Amino acid sequence: MDINIKTRLKDNPMNFEELVFKTRTYRRFDESFSVPQKTLRELVNLTRFSASGANRQPLKYLLYGNPSDCSRIFPSLAWAGYLKEWEGPEPGERPSAYIVILGDKSITDSFGVDHGIAAQTIMLGASTLGMGGCMIASIRKEELRTELNIPGQYEILLVLALGKPVEKVVIDDIKDGDVKYWRDDSQVHHVPKRSLDELILKL
Amino acid sequence: MDINIKTRLKDNPMNFEELVFKTRTYRRFDESFSVPQKTLRELVNLTRFSASGANRQPLKYLLYGNPSDCSRIFPSLAWAGYLKEWEGPEPGERPSAYIVILGDKSITDSFGVDHGIAAQTIMLGASTLGMGGCMIASIRKEELRTELNIPGQYEILLVLALGKPVEKVVIDDIKDGDVKYWRDDSQVHHVPKRSLDELILKL
Predict the structure, then answer these.
(1) Which member of A9, A44, A123 has the closest CB to residue B200?
(2) In this predicted model, what pLDDT tens digit does every residue of B177-198 receive, in sequence order?
């Protein structure tokens, strides 16, 4: 195997750094946009080639891309905990599709971080297509289970909301350790991020 | 925001699908290759722009790229559980660098899947550089904590082993539900993966 190694991300024409930077969490969408089922399947297909603890591959997926299904899922989700005045996206700005990530307990009871790996892979993939979305862990799970008739064999792990973003999201340097995102008067969504030096420990 | 939406991954010049496919789990490396500290920092920097539950950003990182540090970490790691006859890579084929992912309990006790998101982001980034590696959760944590003097404030979550891969890894269709990876007589590493139709539930 002859591999041409590069040491700086910017040296790579793929510019993965730009893709990661572009993959913001979005919560407001152009709801008139629709995500084809084939696209949702392609996004899930990416997860087949992503790491899985002990290669068990215990995750299962439910795909929803039509408006009537989406309206069944929306009420079970909690949106943007730090925006106390905001109950989530208005009609017209709601997600166009959802991917529900389940853990199949007939395979294992321990899903490790498989769903984090899968969710990030899907979100980066969606971003290459110009889409965006939100990983939602704050779910009224029993309500969603009933609404979607999800058998007890499956644990509800995450819901990925997807669509065509219509909000501007910017990253700010963190101030005084305050991690709360906020919206300014122009409805720009600000997300404070810790510095690299704060993340890398020197022991 | 005027976004040109694509619906098929293959329509994107970045070819993210190819990147994901190329990002295999590797366990044998050219140990003479060295990973600059700057590269490790760039990889961790990607995680600053990845999703974090409630934007808490509780992960911290330890970076090790020199041979003497690597030899301190290697003994605490368990390799390839399904390869019973193999105790891990021989000297000369061991990783050239490690990123230890910690959860800072002074920020939160619940790290959700932040470390899965971060690990996949780092591994995809490493892959764009021609590197490869392995996410390791099977760690003798107290041994590693002592060796690296990791304070009790930090939970050891994952170790990412990185280097220049020297093994061939292929993906096979799964047979009879057997997820165990294996090595053939030519030392090619085979990884059985479930089909897309098995992953997508229809309720």
Answers:
(1) A44
(2) 999 999 999 999 999 999 999 9
| pTM attached to this predicted model | 0.95
Is residue B107 within 8 A of residue B58, CB to CB? The reply is: yes
CA atoms within 13 A on the CB side of B195: 7
Q: Which amino acid is at A96?
A: S
Tokens found for residue A15: 């510019």
Tokens coding A94:
């709601």
The helix/strand/coil state of B5 is coil
Q: Do A29 and A80 meet the contact criterion of CB atoms below 8 Å apart?
A: no
The amino acid sitting at A181 is: Y
- Give the CA angle between residues A168, A173, A174 to the nearest 5°: 110
Sign of the dihedral defined by the CA atoms of residues B175, B178, B183, B189, in that order: positive
Residue listed under structure tokens 């009224």: A140
Residue B10 pLDDT class (50, 70, 90 cuts) = low
Rounded-to-integer distance, Cα A13 and Cα B34, Å:
22
Given an 8 Å threshold on Cβ–Cβ distance, is B39 in contact with A14?
no
Report whether A49 contacts B174 (CB < 8 A): no
| Distance between B39 CA and the closest CA of chain A, angstroms | 6
Q: Which helix (H) or strand (E) holds B45?
A: helix B37-47
- Judging contacts by C-beta atoms under 8 Å, the chain A residues touching residue B84 are none
What's the complex ipTM? 0.95
Looking at the partner chain, which of A33, A51, A135 has a beta carbon nearest the beta carbon of B135? A51
Nearest Cα residue in chain B from A180: B55
Identify which of B108, B121, B102 has the alpha carbon closest to the alpha carbon of residue B53.
B108
Q: Does the beta-carbon distance from A8 to B39 stay under 8 Å? A: yes
Are A116 and B120 inside 8 Å of each other by CB? Answer: yes
Alpha-carbon distance of A159 to A136, in angstroms, equals: 5
Nearest neighbour of A128 by CB, restricted to B16, B59, B192? B16
Q: In B52-169, which ranges are continuous DSSP H helix?
A: 67-73, 114-128, 141-148
- Mean pLDDT (10-residue bins), chain A, 203 residues: 58 79 96 94 96 98 97 96 93 98 97 98 93 97 98 98 96 96 96 98 93
Report the distance separating Cα A66 and Cα A42, nearest Å.
17
